[in-house]
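Dear colleague,

Following up on Tuesday's group meeting, I ran the structure prediction for the two-component complex that the binding team flagged. I've pasted the input sequences exactly as they went in, so you can double-check that nothing got truncated or mislabelled along the way. The structure tokens for the whole assembly follow below. Feel free to forward this to whoever is handling the docking comparison.

Inputs:
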Amino acid sequence: MGEVGVSEAIRLSTMLRDLVDVLIPGEDDWPSASLAGVHGILGMRLLEELGEDALLQVEQALSACGGPLGPLDEEQRMIVVAKLEASQPRLFTLIRTATYLGYYESPGVIPAIRALGQPYDPVPILKGYHLEPFDRERDRPKHNRGFYIPTDEVKPVDISGLDHLGERHGRA
Amino acid sequence: MAARNDHADVLIVGSGATGSLASLVLAEAGLHVICLEQGGWVEPREHPHYRPDWQWDRRTRWNADVNVRRPNADDFPVNSDSSQVLMWNGVGGSTNVYGALWPRYRPSDFRKGTEHGLQPDWPISYEDVAPYYEKADALIGVSGLEGDPAMPAHPAYPTGPLPMGAPARKMAEAFDKLGWHWWPVPAGVISSDYDGRPACNGCGICTGCPRGSMSKFSLSVWPRALEAGTELRTYARVIRIEKDRSGRATGAIYVDRNTGRQHKVTADVVVLAANGVGTPRLLLASDNLANSSDQVGRNLLHHTLVACEMWVDEPLASHTGYVAALVSREFAETDVSRGFVNGFNFNCVTTGGAGEQANGHMTQARAPWGKGHHQWFRRHFGRNFGIFGIGDDLPNPDNRVTLSASQRDADGVPVAELHYRPGENDMKMMKFMSDRLVDIAKATGAFEYKLQDYMDEHGIYRTPAWHLLGTARMGKSPDMSVVNKYQQCWDVPNLFIIDGSVLTTGGVVNPTPTVTALAIRAAEHIRDNFRDLAKTTRPMAA
């Protein structure tokens, strides 16, 4: 790969890294999206969904909104991404969806999810989640509410007050 | 051209839930059954469940919407100007991706003609179908709790109720506070090991189930149907049903997708099990077969559908356990004081994985990007659940499946086109349902809730249409219906339709239990009358 190719590779990879970190920055025990490796996942998702020039499309869109993000401070980065969200809603939705799902599917993020105190497995079908079996004494509804109309007790209802049905009366 | 010509007693088109059941019933009776399926087998490891990126996978490659998932050669093209068209084409059909809620219709669902005349009465009653509900339940091992006062009494389900998780308890509290009916949901999911399949392990990824705990029909019914002798041909796409001068169906022409060659199967009886879009498409593309009533493709029903997602303070681990928790039949019967006819049901559901929760699962409520992201996630994760309001929509002949005048698929069959717009009664019902969903959200003490009305920015109702019903409906007379009470075409006496197309009304619940019960009933009718059906040319009586 020549000088231009290397430069482009670094430029586009940096763009993805900066972009995912604006969407999901690090905080306390939560890694930033790039620290979790989400920029790589995002790149693949964009390629998958938009084709080979996907990253150039994103770069162009960001540029039209005031990018690239690299030289900007935090507040300016937020403004650029907000413009992207407003001006390219479909592209932004794809970026956000791929970033959010990629982040919470990243193995490095799972401990932070678990630390919230609820069970969480990245591939839950493997072990399943334990739930207390249904206890007929404890769990059976006690309300005795509910009714149905038996077949031979279904009678005509008066729909004359339902004006919106006017022209449909009798039409089946 | 036809390199392979063969004959079956019964030819079945489609290997989904109904095609598999009919294959089982008829092959067990000793009949030679050939079933043609345009897709292939879906192996358990192909499902998204075993991938670490299963949340992305089920939005993309495994999206149930044929127009969203990646180009999948097993699918056939459907142009929709409104609804999202949800289905799966392959062995087991849409049971590869469904949720398997298993509620029955109610007696009044079969008597809407008597009740208000805006829908026809079915030619059969709840009592006619009830024994077949029980047969279907036994075959797939339905779980649930008997004794619901809002339903006719019936024997205990084959497996007991699934666990009541924390979201179910929370929703039950809310219904109790409101004084409304609720009941543990019946499910096509086994709560204990059954018929060689393992009990549900509560993983919560209920988009089909590669374990077979949820009844994926390729794992629950097909092994038995094959054992009984059914000849299942995969990658066999039917392009036309043929008939002879006497008006009888003679069989089908199909394309072997592995070779591209056309073949013909002749049969004494032909059964269509190709769903509410595929069946009318095939009939219309077969020189307007069985359509003297002009009802083929019309009266498409999806159900009215709205939803609400809500978040409460306490952690509920709402991503665990079977996806459906409770049903409420409080509003299932017509009460004209509400301002509309027909009723609806509430289906109470759990939620998705962490990424799906952050990204907005049932609604557009999602974590903000930027600084507030983690705070939102800490506040919301695992504390949410959703409720769908699902109601009985009125039939409209203009809501329909038609054939494209200009587009054909790779085999030369016109592309299906789908149009659906809810009527005024449906809209009034959906408004009422949304208001009641807000009542529930408030009763749960939710700190946040969000409604979903499935309207796009242009006001078009883009419902996620799992339920593709009514497009070859059953009726009492040949002028306003396509099939009689045994699902036999009025016009073609040896042609039967056994998928959701035949439902006369949609009821207020997920239709698969009723569709499967009817399929068994129709298959038994074919079995018991095969000799006559193999030769008759007379139009059938109602």
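Chain A touches chain B through 70 residues (CB under 8 Å).

Cheers,
M.
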